Structures are given as structure tokens and as C-alpha cells.
Amino acid sequence: MSGAFGDLGTLMPLFLGLAQNGSISVSSTLVFMGLSNMITGAYFGIPLPVQPMKAIAAVAIAGKYTPPQLASAGLFVAATVGFLSVTGLVRWFTKRIPLPIVKGIQVGTGLSLIISAGGYIPLNLSSAVDYAASIIAVTYLATDLIPELPETSATAIGCSVSLMNLIGCWFSAMPICHGSGGLAAQYRFGARSGASIMLLGLIKLLLGLFASEYVLFYSRIFWPVPLGVLLFLAGVGLAKMGESLNTGGARDLWESTDETDAEAERKPRSITAEERMMRWTVMIATMGAILAFKNNGVGFIVGLLIHITYNLLDRVRDWGAGRHGTIRLNSERSEGSSG
């Protein structure tokens, strides 16, 4: 239960900003977030947070969106994420996205939280690509943090995000999602199961039903310092996930000790210094793009392009080596025939 309030550092700045602008209904937001916390906590069994859609929230705060404008944006993203999830595209991408890109998203998001801790500036994360990348990142993070539990399905997370918003946005609730920053914060403060999320959901539900008018008043008075501390610690915890990129903690380096037995013990394979540097470069580039453009989607695309470039260079080098070997062999045959 100790981690129940761990992700409030990522929730409260955006929630307060939208509420003060009149862009959301405070009571509807608390009620639907509370119900979502309770349902997802029971279903997934992990401390999967329910957070604001940061991209939409940041733009809505800056542009002083009306409730219908904000609801339209939330419904569009919910429909897009739902389509990607139902068709299996999110699951397909999750299995094929290189791990250095995922680590780069995690580290970049963590550093963004640390930077924003000083001023609670909403992070400007945008586009459907960003939300797809976030789903992939939180799926990997859940397995990294709590490996003893069954692997969380990216499709299930995507469908959850879609359903939460397809229902809640009609009632002027804040667009919400499941984020890796919130999961890192929940875990950092002791949450290990869905029980903590369900407790937080119950509190939100009760506040939304009986005390929503007091939430804004008391939050503005008592929350500024705790919010900064929570954001900073959550960012540090999430950024630390990059440490395992080239170690046994990297799942894409695992290999079975017995190829004929699916249940055989798995161990990390050794990698060359060149491959280690390539993986590190892709992660750093992904992280750097996220910080430079304040956009997970841009970081994802930059990391993917660099990864593809490395692979193409490897193929060209292998082709050149093979061609050189063929030419050399033909030359030796010619010399042998002439002799």
C-alpha cells in the first residue's frame, strides 16, 4: 500500500492545470480515474498507473481548451490506440522494436521528469506514435520491475487506454493513459501489486463523489513541494532502467541453454564491443531526441532510424567482405588453370 500515491507527481500538475482552465470536470475526472484504477489494478495485478495523456494535457493547458475540444482530442487518440491494439499492431511492434530504443524511451522519460521537477512544466509529448511508444515502454518496464509476474500484454494495455477514454471523455473527464513514469514512481515507493492502485482508485472515487470542490483548493496550498520531490525520485528510478542495456538484464540478450526445451534455463549471450557501442548509441540517440524535442514519438523515430542505419551498414560490410572473398577465389582458380 505504501506506493499508492507514488505517481501523484506526474498526475497533479496536469490535473490542476486543466482544472484551473475549466477544461475538465473535476468530479468526473476523479470518478473515472478512480474506477479505472480499481479495474486495471484488479485485472493486471501490477501497480499500473492511470495518468493524464501528457501530450493532450500540455496543449490543452497552453491553448485553454474547452471541455468539448479536450474531449474530441481524447476520443481521437483513444480510437487510434484502440485500432492499433485490436488489430494486433501494438503487439507486433512490441516484439520487434529493438531494446535499445525502449531503454532510450525509459531513460529519456526519466530525465524529462527530473528536469520538470523544478517547475512542474507539463511535458510536451505528442502524436499517436508517442502513445504507441509509451505502451511499448510500460510493457517492457512492467516485466523488468516485476519479472516474477506473468508478462503484461501490450494489446491489453492499449485496449485499456482506449476504453477508459472512449467512456470517460464523454463526461468531460481528463484523457488518461498508462505511463512508464507513473509505474516507476509506484514501484519506487513500494508498490508491487494492483492492491496499491485499487486503494488509490477508491480514494479518487470517494473524492470525486463527495469532495471534488475541496480538491483544487487544498491541492494548491499543500502540494507544490511534495510534487517536485515525487517527480524527481520517479525520474531517477526510471532513468536507472538504462543501466541493464548491455547486461544480463537485457531480455533480447537472453538465450536458452537447451534449444530443444522451451522451459530451459536462459542465460545472457556475450556481445562484442562493437555491438555494445551500437546498442549504447541507439539508446543515447533516442534519449537525446526525447529531451531535445520533448516528444517520445520523435525519440522513437530517431532511435529506429539509427538502428536501421547500423543494420544497413553491417549488411553492406558483409556483402563487401563476401564479394572480396569471391573475387579472390576466382583469381586463385584462374592462376591455377594458367599454371
Let me know the number of strands.
Answer: 4
Distance between the ends: 84 Å
Order of helices and strands: HHEHHHHHHEHHHHEEHH
Trace the largest sheet across and list its strands: 1-2
What is the tally of helical segments? 14
Rg calc: 23 Å
What proportion of the residues is helical, as a percent range? over 70%
Mean pLDDT: 79
Low-confidence stretches: 120-126, 256-264
Relative strand content: under 5%
Major beta sheet, specifics?
Answer: 2 strands, antiparallel
What structural class do helix, strand and pairing data support?
mainly alpha
Globally, the shape reads elongated
How does this model look, in words?
- The chain has 339 residues and is mostly helical.
- It has 14 helices and 4 strands.
- It is elongated, with a radius of gyration of 23 Å.
